[in-house]
């Protein structure tokens, strides 16, 4: 579509829900991939993948990044906050509790002065044979990984609609949503991430009329405190030799570019997709 045609289309009425912004880019739209001035909430960002994503969002111009986490921030969070004065903040949140999630998102919008993006990242894993799982362990994984993601996405969407913001929701799924992880199997964990990935597709369909985009990222192995055992496995080198792929785990920050793209205004027509980021995909 030519610029003049784009301007003409953007100035007209679009078939979206009444009283909400057109889903089309407006004249003068900034096509640079940037999060300039945007306010982003990331669940579970006090450490690990979430903190790495916060670092990349800040490096790409986010006005403020809020970590919604149940635990208190540690030294790594404090160091990143010191490097970005007034731009990285913490809101204590239990993502499995509806009232806590609603209050946290209200606080993000109030403290940030706006609200543009939600990364539903908080989650947990437990790797053991399926027959060794107790019902309590199974239900805990689903409560945190699925219910928590659902609450954060739906309350973010409600806030976007309230503010008439064309917001973006990005779920952290997993390569285990596609196939088993042979190095560390977990049927319940893979099931939760498959649920999250499917949820992203369906919510994207439902919320497109509001200009809200919903996508997911499926990481492979990422170097965090939860994956220390992977590289210490006695057959790790053998797996790399015969299965190929990048012979290392990803740094959390290496995932960040995809999240930044999906949160940015450059991705105004990108919704309902999953982006796999798994440099060692052949080892799975």
UniProtKB/TrEMBL annotation:
It holds the Pfam family adh_short_C2. Keywords: Oxidoreductase. Residues 1-28 are annotated as: Disordered. It comes from the Eukaryota. Belongs to the short-chain dehydrogenases/reductases (SDR) family. This is NADP-dependent mannitol dehydrogenase.
């Amino acid at each position: 579509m030519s610029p003049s045609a784009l301007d003409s289309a953007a100035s007209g009425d679009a078939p979206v829900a009444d009283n909400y912004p057109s889903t089309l880019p407006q004249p003068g739209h900034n096509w640079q991939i940037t999060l300039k001035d945007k306010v982003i909430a990331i669940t579970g960002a006090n450490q690990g993948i979430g903190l790495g994503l916060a670092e990349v969002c800040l490096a790409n111009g986010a006005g403020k990044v809020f970590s919604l986490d149940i635990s208190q921030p540690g030294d790594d969070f404090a160091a990143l906050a010191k490097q970005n004065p007034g731009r990285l903040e913490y809101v204590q949140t239990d993502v499995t509790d509806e009232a806590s999630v609603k209050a946290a998102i209200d606080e993000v919008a109030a403290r940030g002065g706006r609200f543009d993006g939600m990364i539903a990242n908080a989650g947990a894993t437990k790797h053991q044979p399926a027959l060794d799982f107790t019902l309590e362990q199974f239900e805990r994984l689903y409560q945190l990984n699925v219910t928590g993601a659902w609450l954060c996405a739906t309350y973010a969407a409600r806030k976007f609609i309230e503010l008439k913001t064309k917001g973006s929701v990005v779920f952290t799924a997993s390569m285990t949503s596609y196939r088993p992880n042979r190095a560390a199997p977990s049927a319940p964990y893979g099931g939760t991430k498959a649920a999250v990935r499917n949820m992203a597709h369906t919510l994207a369909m439902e919320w497109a009329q509001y200009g809200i985009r919903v996508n997911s990222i499926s990481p492979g192995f990422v170097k965090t405190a939860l994956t220390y055992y992977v590289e210490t496995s006695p057959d790790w080198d053998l797996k790399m030799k015969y299965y190929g792929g990048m012979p290392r785990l990803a740094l959390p920050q290496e995932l960040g570019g995809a999240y930044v793209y999906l949160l940015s205004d450059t991705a105004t027509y990108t919704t309902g997709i999953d982006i796999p980021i798994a440099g060692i995909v052949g080892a799975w």
